[in-house]
Amino acid sequence: MNAPLMRLRGLIRKESLQILRDPSSIAIAFILPAVLLLLFGYGVSLDARHVSLGLVVDEPSSTAASFISQFRHSPYFTPHDFATERSAEHALAGGQIDGFIWLQGDFSRMLDAGRKPAIGLFVNGVDANNARLIENYVQQSWVRWVAQQAASTGIADPQPIDIEPRIWFNPAVSSRDYLVPGLIAVIMTLTGALLTALVIAREWERGTMEALMVTKVSMLEILAAKIVPYFLLGMGGMVVSVLIAVFLFGVPLLGSLVVLGLASSLFMLASLGMGLLISTIAKNQFVAGQIAIITTFLPAFILSGFIFDISSMPAIVQWITHIVAARYFVAILQTLFLAGTVWSVLLPNLLALLAMAIVFLGAARLTARKRLD
To answer: Global pTM?
Structure first.
C-alpha cells in the first residue's frame, strides 16, 4: 500500500476513534434527528381537527337538526350551542370558539318552499389557513347534506354536477404524510452541516488541526478523512429518520430503496460539503454553529417547499430556492414516499443534487489551505 493510502487510512481511523470517544457527534447524527422528527412530526400539522364551532339555530326544527347533525358527528368539529347570534359573537371575539354557524329563523321555511336559505358562517380570520379550512369543511358539509336530503325525499338533486373526487398519492389527505418526508430533508440538512462544521471547528480550538498541518498529509487527504466517517454517520442518522417515518408515523414508502439511498448519499455529500466550507471560514464552534443554522437549516425550512409552496413565492425568491439543496431532496423524498419511483421527477432533482455536491465539495477544497493563518 502506497504512502498516501496509508496516511488516509490512518486519518480515517483517527476520525472514527474520535467519533466513538466524542458523544456529541453521536448525538448530532442519531439523537438530534430523532428528537427533531418527533417534535415536528407530532407538533406540526396542517390538518384542522376538533375545531371549536358554535351553532346558533333561531327556530329549531327537524330540518335544522338534520343539518346541524353533520357537525355534531364530524371529527373535524367540536360543537358548542348558543342561544343567540350575539352570544356566539362574544364567544368568537373572546377566543372561545374558532367560528360559528347561524341558521336564521326562515331556514326551514325557505327550504320547504324550494328556495335557498342564507347560512351565516362567521370565522376567526387571524389564522388564515385555519379559516379557509373551516370554510371548506362547512361548504362540503352543506353539499353533502343537500345531496342526502334529495336522495331521502326522492326529488331530483338540485346540484347539476356530481363531483367524485379521486385523490392521488395521499388518499387520506393527511398533512403528516406530506410533512414528514420534508422534515427528514430539513433535519438532515442541519445535522449534515453540523457534523463537519462543529467538529472541525473544535479541532481548530483544541489545536489538533495545527498538529495535522505540520505532518506530510495533504489538505485533500484531511478533507477526505473528514468526509468518509461523517458520511457514514450521517447516513446512519438518515436510516433512523426513515425508520421513524415509516414505522412510527406510518408514512408509506412506495418508491425504490436503492434510489432513496442514492439520493440520500448525494444530499449527504452536499450537506457535508457545506459543513466543510463553513469550517474553512469559521474556526470557532459557536460561529460555525450559527453560520450552519442560518445558511442551511433556515433556508431548508423556508425555501425548500417543505411547508410553503414554491410556486406561490415571488419570482426572485423562486430563483433563490434553486441554490438550496434541500429543495431537490424534499421533492425526491415526497415523490419516493407518496408517489413511488417517478423518474420524470426524480432524475432532474438527482442531477441537481449531484451538481450541488460537486460545487460545495469543490468550494471547500479550493478554500481549504494547509496553513495556520
So the answer is: 0.79
